[in-house]
Design a protein that fits this description.
GO terms for molecular function: monooxygenase activity. This is Nitronate monooxygenase. Keywords: Flavoprotein, FMN, Monooxygenase, Oxidoreductase. The structure is a single chain. The protein is α/β, with parallel strands linked by helices and about 325 residues long. The protein has 2 domains: about 5-215 and about 300-325, TIM Barrel (Alpha-Beta Barrel), CATH 3.20.20.70; about 220-285, no CATH class. It contains 13 helices and 10 strands. The strands form 2 sheets. Strands 1-2-3-4-5-6-7-8 form an 8-stranded parallel β-barrel, surrounded by 6 helices. A two-stranded antiparallel ribbon has the order 9-10. Helix 2 (about 30-40) packs parallel to helix 3 (about 55-65), helix 3 (about 55-65) runs parallel beside helix 4 (about 90-100) and helix 8 (about 190-195) crosses helix 13. It is globular and about 55 Å long. It starts with 8 loop residues before the first helix and ends with a helix. The relative contact order is 0.14. Bound molecules: flavin mononucleotide.
């Protein structure tokens, strides 16, 4: 494989082999999974909010450090749009600084308050944004790189629902810092396409859910294997909090509530609670919970180790290059 082609400002920034990021996965991206991603040559992020007790997060970071034998790895910091909800993030940010992780992936709200805290500690910041205007603000705030995620993506693709193909072309045109493309990515040829558009790497979430190292029930992973990505549903649009999830009974109930015109959050609380999603991951009962899931599930056809998924992805990327004569 022509590895030099896959050397970009992103691989230089993070000291990684492949320009591939595996984004934070609430309740799922723990030390085991992130270490597998890092050891496969990509970059992974422990989801801080999975470990609301700061000492638990510290243990997870230390475990990951051991499993990766000192290679750089990251932590995901999801910033809520509701400032009061970020109180729980403050002690976690302190742990990330004290433990001097290599990089954080910020997402959700503006990273402006977090950037100086990370810079002081020598930690790189990559901000994930759902549209170019937020990416431009993040660049101004001093982040090292941005991830632009398109509407195809699992989780929160933003209320503007801009497609990945548009994000991939507009990002490098408007920004000077490296741009990473995400949303619906699960085949290596999409990395080739992203590089051709001027992006310097890609990000995956849904594609990785069927990894052996993801600590969820096998029945949950089998459900994703049997899915085709068309079975996702975007809910909470009436709250402008678009959420692309597996089309299950709970998501249908949420869609029905929205259709009925309810704007009372209390009506939704149980259906959308994180507890329900955690139970689904633990028991394999995928009928409940808002289970983040995007269109790239169509590429997740087998439960496999992370390294197998990443190796194949890079082979597909190399084949993509050959196809266009590089
Ligand atoms: C199960 C799951 C959980 C996620 N949890 C988080 C999270 O905690 N923080 C975050 O920034 N993004 C989260 N995301 C979004 C991913 O990091 C990534 O941006 C998204 O999955 C990319 O789109 P894709 O699913 O099409 O690959 C999650 C996605 C999934 C599928």
């Amino acid at each position: 494989m022509s590895e030099t082609v896959f050397k970009t400002r992103l691989t230089d920034l993070l000291g990684i082999r492949y320009p591939v990021l595996c984004g934070g996965l609430l309740h799922l991206a723990d030390a085991n999974y992130v270490a597998a991603v890092v050891n496969a040559g990509a970059m992974g992020f422990i989801s801080a909010l999975t470990f609301p007790d700061p000492e638990q997060l510290r243990d997870e970071i230390r475990k990951c450090r051991e499993l990766t034998s000192g290679k750089p790895f990251g932590v995901n910091l999801y910033i809520s749009a509701r400032p009061d909800a970020n109180d729980r993030l403050i002690p976690l940010v302190s742990v990330v600084r004290e433990e001097k992780v290599a990089v954080v992936e910020t997402a959700g709200g503006s990273p402006a308050a977090i950037v100086p805290l990370m810079k002081e500690a020598g930690i790189k910041v990559i901000h994930k944004a759902p549209a170019i205007r937020f990416a431009l603000s993040a660049e101004k705030a001093g982040v090292d790189a941005v991830i632009l995620v398109g509407a195809e993506g699992g989780g929160h693709p933003g209320y503007m629902m801009v497609g990945t193909m548009v994000q991939g072309a507009i990002g490098p045109e408007r920004l000077s810092i490296p741009v990473i493309l995400g949303g619906g990515i699960g085949h290596g040829s999409q990395l080739t396409a992203a590089l051709a558009m001027g992006c310097e790497g890609i990000l995956m979430g849904t594609r990785m859910l069927v990894s052996e190292e993801i600590g969820a029930h096998r029945a949950y992973k089998q459900r994703i294997v049997s899915g085709d990505g068309l079975d996702s549903l975007v809910v909470m649009t009436s709250f402008k909090n678009h959420h692309r999830v597996l089309h299950n009974e709970a998501a249908e109930a949420v869609a029905a509530l929205e259709k009925s015109g309810s704007q009372d959050y209390a009506d939704y609380a149980d259906l959308i609670s994180g507890k329900r999603a955690r139970e689904a991951y633990a028991t394999g009962d995928t009928s409940q919970g808002m289970l983040d899931y995007g269109q790239s599930a169509c590429f997740a056809n087998e439960i496999e180790p992370v390294v197998t998924i990443i190796d194949r992805f890079m082979q597909e990327a190399a084949l993509g290059l050959k196809r266009i004569g590089i």
